[in-house]
Write a structure and sequence with these properties.
70% helix, 7% strand, 248 residues, mainly alpha
Length: 248
Amino acid sequence: MENKNLLLKTGLLAGRIMMESGSEAYRVEDTMQRIAQNSKKLDTESYVTATGIFMSINDESTSQMTQARNRSINLEKIDATNRYSREYAAGNITLIELYEALQSVDSQTPEFNKHYRMIAAGVASFSLMLLLGGTYGDVITAFIIGSIGYFMSNRIYHRTQMKFINDLIASFIISMLSVFSYRVGLAANLDSLIIGGIMPLVPGLAITAGMRDLFEGHLLTGIVRLVEAILISLVIGIGIALTLQWFS
């Protein structure tokens, strides 16, 4: 019984880490099944949705589930989980060592400093402005506005824990800064500046993961992710529209 519980706990922990870090549902299920198969438990089932992860050992009538509460993007956690699962498959570590390693990945994997993330958001806005043919003033202003918008989105979410509201307010701030910069002559193209500024907020990974889940037959998870991406895009559009209606 102890080994069965440990297997289920390990599989669910691996699945939760990957799901909360932005992995596709079919990839999560595959990793969980591989862990079970390498534990000589061939008759297992795993089922993953955007918020719930289930795993059972059918011939033992044993099942457990866990929730994926805080979804974000952390490719380092996904890579570490896959790496440890491969080491377990190769026989280099035991099941308990795999479980302890996954606990360490879950709790101790560092995230990039917020300043680095702000700079990366600014570079994304900067790069898009270059592609849109912006002037030097446009690209520099887009870098600053994109960094500020990303910072505000994350700060508001951490303070309120309310999805969509943070993107609504951040898009509103980005639009106001863009209108102000355009009026004082810091940028020559208002439309391109707004597009560049909101680029770090666009849910590109959610759209991609949702489409891949749909193509793999995970209709529920794929639809949920696409709906979430559509809602984020909608609130960003509302924030921009309100700004242009009031201040443009």
